[in-house]
């Protein structure tokens, strides 16, 4: 049985004081989620990680939005895994479409980062998803399969089990145009079959999230689908009320 997961991707939003306010205000809802067997987390910017970690319920997952694959060195502007570990951060989102588009992140680079994270016993959340043009051409599965095969290349089944996958069609991110639950399930079921081909039966244990304009009023629809194990949520994860609505929708 895969545990449901709600992860809020804050992107480049919230100053440290705003992040602290959210952390302090989220304690009851984290308790509610945990008591219903759901994992919940947020991914603040690097500068807000510590304040969220220090002020939230310790069971709230606090994830970074990226990391570097090297432990230290001449990589200006980068943040390493040991730096995150010292803050008690053990989750990292990788390969988000915005990082692929604006920061040149490739599936090959994500693969290096995933391996570094797994070696450090951390949890990568690996994002995949197609553009509107790819979707219109009917090439979603081919595109996503390539991202999964390259991103998770060389992992053992035991390692693959530690990775969370997030399927986020780019045309649904921040647009208010969410994929229907049928489209999401169709692609996510396909991702699970791809994982089975790569890693065997452990594919049944790998959590796969849907992301893209998930809101309190539509999250429950996705959760009714067999292969969807939770959501990676941007805009609707920023305000406490809305985040609470997402948890309630997930609990059902
Ligand atoms: P959105 O973003 O929920 O604002 O569409 C999702 C994401 O990019 O992770």
Structure description:
The two termini are 17 Å apart. The chain is α/β, with parallel strands linked by helices and 252 residues long. The protein is globular and about 45 Å long. It has an 8-stranded parallel barrel, surrounded by 6 helices. Strand 2, helix 3 and strand 3 (61-64) form a beta-alpha-beta unit. The protein contains 12 helices and 8 strands. Bound molecules: 2-phosphoglycolic acid. 2-phosphoglycolic acid binds at residues 9, 168, 173-174, 211-214, 232-236.
Proportion in β-strands: 5-15%
**Shape category:** globular
Question: Main beta sheet, described?
Answer: 8 strands, parallel, barrel
Low-confidence residue ranges: none
| Helical residue percent band | 40-55%
Brief summary:
This protein is an alpha/beta fold and 252 residues long. It contains 12 helices and 8 strands. An 8-stranded parallel β-barrel has the order 1-2-3-4-5-6-7-8, surrounded by 6 helices.
């Amino acid at each position: 049985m895969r545990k449901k997961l709600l992860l809020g991707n804050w992107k480049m939003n919230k100053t440290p004081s705003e992040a602290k306010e959210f952390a302090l205000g989220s304690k009851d809802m984290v308790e509610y989620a945990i008591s219903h067997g759901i994992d919940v987390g947020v991914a603040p910017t690097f500068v807000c990680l510590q304040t969220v970690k220090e002020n939230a319920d310790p069971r709230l997952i606090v994830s970074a939005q990226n990391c570097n694959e090297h432990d230290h060195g001449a990589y200006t502007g980068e943040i390493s895994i040991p730096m995150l570990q010292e803050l008690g951060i053990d989750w990292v989102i990788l390969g988000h479409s915005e990082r692929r588009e604006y920061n040149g992140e490739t599936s090959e680079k994500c693969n290096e980062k995933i391996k570094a994270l797994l070696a450090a016993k951390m949890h990568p959340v690996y994002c995949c998803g197609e553009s509107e043009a790819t979707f219109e051409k009917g090439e979603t599965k081919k595109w996503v399969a390539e991202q999964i095969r390259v991103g998770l290349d060389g992992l053992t089944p035991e390692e693959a089990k530690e990775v969370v996958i997030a399927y986020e069609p780019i045309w649904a991110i921040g647009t208010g145009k969410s994929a229907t639950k049928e489209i999401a399930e169709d692609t996510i079921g396909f991702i699970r079959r791809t994982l089975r081909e790569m890693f065997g039966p452990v594919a049944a244990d790998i959590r796969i999230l849907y992301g893209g304009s998930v809101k309190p009023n539509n999250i429950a629809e996705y959760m009714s689908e067999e292969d969807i194990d939770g959501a990676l949520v941007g805009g609707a994860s920023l305000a406490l009320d809305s985040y609470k609505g997402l948890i309630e929708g997930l609990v059902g």
